Amino acid sequence: MPPLFLLLIAVLLPLPSLPLSQPINRRALLTSSTLLLPTSSYAKTKTSTISSPSSSNSKSPNSTTPIPPPLLPPSLSLLSTIPPSPTSPLYASLKTSLLSLLLPTSPPRTSLTLLRTFDNSREIFQSSSSKLLPEDSTLSYITKSEKSEKYLSLIRLNLQSIISSTTLKDNSKTLTLINDTLLLLSSLQSLSIPFNPKIPPQYKTLPVLKKRSTLTLTLSQNKTIQITLDPYIAPLACGNIFDLSERTFYNDLPLKVNDDKIVGGSFLEGFIDPYTAKLRTIPYEVYCNGRLSYDNPIQVPPDFNYNTKNLVGVYKNNLGLVSSEFFISKGNLSDKELEELNGEVQPVGWVTGGDVDDVKGGRILRVDVDGEVERWGKGFSEFS
Fold it and tell me: Considering the chain, what percentage of its residues have pLDDT values greater than 90?
């Protein structure tokens, strides 16, 4: 029996219900970001450390406790922005099945069926996520294959744990595992998508991010934040912030924090691009209905609400172009602040590890990166 058919059966087949001890309001969870989840395996990816003199004695994120991811909205958004592919229905069905576990009427055998259908479809996931894409270098292809196998193994471990947590009616652990699995699914699926955005020729000297990448910010006051950059919504803005992180631009810069947001990356007028010897500015990129536009940069599409906790964006400068200063929403913005931000901040990704409410100020000690960026004249390679 084809694996895809099995998965559809798992999603659609009605089974007897097992009430949870404390029913979960799924709608509230998907629209609220006031809760954070416990430690997750998602944050255990390897990073390449770039240290500044001011942070040479600080502890590497690799040696600390893994960073807990925020609740659902980031993981769902990261899945929704991935372009369609032949395996998209498979991922969509798995996501639907995972979310159905949040319902108090969830059938008792759903989690077990989910694991079985995942095992039956594992070869499809493996072959699609590790296939050689036109833009892959030999090194990036090997790295991608290793990541693919790692994500698949972690997903299976999570699905096994979900069987136990749903049986024990441990709602908190179930939420943690579902969120973690959704993040892993988005990472796995993004490996299989060839992404070659149509960048207008006037922006050819700007760095471009073509694959999902992470930034781990080590802050003063012993805090750490992990950001997942999403190039599907803004490849140039994501490429810029990734490039600046690799160049240690953000190291030792201050953070401005209040109840509404975290602002970082302020440094005089910005970054002087070595290719042009001028201030680097990025055009505003509008993502709407799965398409990028550089022609009508006025309104932010409804897909991205700045009042959604953990949304990361980059501010425009006084020229109306995207700069180096970034913004992290705490989800407490007033209507007036939302109106002022609309069209003034470029969405670039999500905080997927760490608690933004714990950040009270201080400085960025360093930024560790995990990913690749394409630079003009250098091809798809890491900065050196």
Answer: 17
Compute how many other C-beta atoms are within 10 angstroms of the C-beta atom of residue 234: 28
Q: What is the pLDDT of residue 303?
A: 58
CA–CA separation, 279 and 287 (whole Å): 25
The three-point CA angle 151-155-159 to 5° equals 175
> Tens of pLDDT along 2-39?
444 344 334 434 333 333 333 333 333 333 332 222 22
Query: What phi and psi, each to the nearest 5 degrees, are found at residue 131?
Result: -70, 155
Domain ranges for the chain: 3-31+84-190, 201-381
pLDDT of residue 318: 62
pTM of structure: 0.75
Helices (H), the chain: 3-12, 26-31, 73-80, 88-100, 110-129, 138-167, 171-190, 235-246, 335-341
Q: What is the pLDDT of residue 7?
A: 41
Q: Rounded to the nearest 5 degrees, what angle is found at the Cα of 80, between the Cα atoms of 116 and 43?
A: 70
The amino acid at residue 187 is S
Q: What is the pLDDT of residue 20?
A: 33
Element (H, E) at 272: strand 272-273
Q: Provide DSSP, 239-301.
A: HHHHHHHHTTTTTT-BEEE-SSEEEE---TT--EETTTTEE--B---EEETTEEESS-TTS--
Q: Which two tokens stand for residue 382?
A: 């890491």
**Domain 201-381 in CATH 2.40.100.10:** yes
Q: Of 364, 348, 372, which Cα lies nearest the Cα of 47?
A: 372
> Position 180: which residue type?
D
